[in-house]
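Input:
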Amino acid sequence: MSETLAVGAPEAPQRPPRPTGRPSKRLRLARLRDLALVPPIIALLIYGYTLKPDVFLTKSYLVDTVLKYQTELALVVLAEALVLIVGKFDLSLESVVGIAPAVAVFLVVGQTSMLGAPWPTWTVLPVALAFGALIGVFNGLLVVRFKLSAFIVTLAMLIALRGLQLAIVGGATISNLANRIPTIDNLGSLRILTVPLSIWIVVVAFAVGVVVLGYTRFGRSIYAVGGNADAARAAGIRVERVIWVTFIVAGALAALAGLMLSARLGSVAANQGNGMIFTVFAAAVIGGISLDGGKGSLVGALTGVVLLGLIQNVLTLAQVKPDQIQAVNGLVILVALVLARLTSGKAQD
Amino acid sequence: MTIGVTARGVLGLSMAVALVASAAACSKDSAEPAAGGGGTGSVGVDLPRADSDFWNAYASYITPKAGEVGVELTAQTNSQNDIQKVISNVDSLVTQGAKALVIAPQDTGAIGPKLDELAQKKIPVVSVDTRPDNGSVYMVVRADNRAYGTKACEFLGEKLGGRGKVIEFQGALSSINGRDRSEAFKECMTTKFPGITVFEEPTEWEGSKAQAALETRLSTDPDIKGVYMQAGGVFLDPTLQVLKQRKLLVPPTDPRHIFIVSNDGIPQELDAIRKGEIDATVSQPADAYAQYGLYWARQAMEGVTPKEGPTDHGSSVIKLPNGYEDQLPAPLITKDNVDDPALWGNKK
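Output:
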């Protein structure tokens, strides 16, 4: 198993330095894989333009109707990409998207006196992030300390957290938040340089992610652990701690995504985030993140998100019949994958 | 070789899914009714889901209405929108001694065989909100979902003067109620208001999808003048957020006003009507669903055969091939009658 992974993970740094010439070539290949989805994205942009030439390629359209709606997905994909690169799974992220804002908002406006509620409205953001991180701690505990399978642990957590959320809010949608919680109102409607705050958050999060993964010791060790945990351990990397920290960061990111979603919708629906994990995996894997760990780039994952968002939007524009839209959606994703494969010329794994 | 590992991951996923599915399927084995479980004639209630405002309101009415109607409750279960769970919950309720059942199967096709099995055991079933496609039921208690679509269409059509563009947030097409509303709305629009363009947006009852669709349509067709949302609980806040950000939440007298008609009649919608944010909703009577679901369960246990025609509670009973249906009224609520104390959304 470890051999397999080592072979399939050229970026794992436990390899001895190569002779000259190889690294730059490898770099080129890696970059190419990042951009494999650019051709299908361009194809979709062209198609969208033919549908609505007057508005489609304007900045306000692309920002406000395409990108703004992918910001939460992008953050969760970032979280999942980190966990996948370190060689684990986290399915519970979709439930964190629901429960973290639910808990934070509930403590502020819920009909309860639990834990000294109602809490002041500014606590929404820190409480949500802390709660998400806490779930990461718990996932990490079970996976790292008790050596349970991450897949099964987080599958159970997905169900448990969803149930816990229903129990806390009594199955109700917590509504009318924008008027009651300034943080939520700002997250949902504040604009900086005419671009929504949520998009800036995604840009910053990915930029930080790219820098950390590419240029820091911790980031490189995430790839190393995902590529070959034993080799990483032998090289002196504290494998358990790296995995644990990744789970915590992922939980906090998913919580932030959840709060942004609630801000956009002005409410916390009881089923918020339900079923989202499939799209998250789709975006990450289409974007070149390997399910085997140790491989993939965040830029690639981001193109995966943009691709899925564009497909969704163009299907709405094209007025595909409601009963056919899901089938068409799946088909377009397949075509996009083939197109990416043809243009990048690189076998996908 | 890497592919091998990936395939193993996929295999693991599918195995986990299969495991869950088979665990649910196992519970299909029918249970024998327990002898004298819960005293004389108690009613078992299965709730369809725990994550919607409407059904939570319904759930909250069950216990008080049982007291009013004078029936004893065996237990309440929740099937979380899963037909397999309905079936296993029904078995469990029967085992616990239920002599009649009040259920709300959201998958109207799959419940049939279970209904026939229950009929053989002489356990009458009242189906609330949905009409099972087959399998015998004692009584179906529901408001006419087609009427929701028609009323919404007529309201929008009149307000728009028969011209313009409207956007419709459809529920899940796999749900009979969503389908009924969509079909009736479309039928009414094409026959009565052919001058109105309808954008049908599938949403799977997700506010996020509805919001994205609304934003897209408002960008390409800024002259949209009407919104029909098939459920208030999930679509209300997301819709209002978009309109607020686009500064389109203006009074009906303003020419830029977008007319919004909703379905459900939950308290939040009534508040929004009072504030002038939305214009109308069709009230789906959660209290009456609970009350008459239990009422008919009691009638069934007393051996009463339902009669066709108008009832004493303002509805009418019709004969179905597989039972009877009590069609409850679902009033259109606008600013004029929003404060009516008889509306369930105004109670509590």
